[in-house]
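Researcher: Last one for today. Full complex below.
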Amino acid sequence: GAGVSQTPSNKVTEKGKYVELRCDPISGHTALYWYRQSLGQGPEFLIYFQGTGAADDSGLPNDRFFAVRPEGSVSTLKIQRTERGDSAVYLCASSLSPGASGGYTFGSGTRLTVV
Amino acid sequence: QKEVEQNSGPLSVPEGAIASLNCTYSDRGSQSFFWYRQYSGKSPELIMFIYSNGDKEDGRFTAQLNKASQYVSLLIRDSQPSDSATYLCAVGPPKLQFGAGTQVVVTP
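Model: Here's the assembly. Have a good evening.
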């Protein structure tokens, strides 16, 4: 596609529920990144994929968070047993390759609210 | 200590003046340095990247890098009200580590 697409744009869920956030990167971009941004903070790295594999998942806060990219394109971030502290904007970005010149292009984000 | 540090601001700049933004980073192995602009409620938008020591100019924007001092800066010349936003410094690769951002307010 022309840009990075994230769905849904907004998600409200109850504490303890399971949620899935989807990211469709720019066509041909092999690297895909997930970030989380809280109000007044910069984006916080969660995980990045090179192709189908997770190259670095050091930013995932705990085992309730998991992400997949089974065909090397669309990625899904999965959060189990959601907590109010998970409320944030979840950003996805993609690039031609890790460290590609020109930086990374971000999607418009998914605003997750846990009530 | 955070890996990427920025002054949070707000930085108030008169219209037409130069806005100067600073960023320091802790990882000496960093190779790529980026400045993103983020309007309220929007996602970050890349405005500049720099890889080598020295200056890089693009229109009204100039990025400056000093790897020995682990310091990156961004100058915005002839500041416009539309430049009012939060500016994020990011360092990598392959993953980007972001600072908390500096809010810039350009006053007419």
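The two ends of chain A are 33 Å apart (CA to CA). The interface with chain B takes residues 31, 33, 35, 40-45, 48, 50, 55-56, 59, 91, 98-99, 101-109 of chain A (CB under 8 Å).
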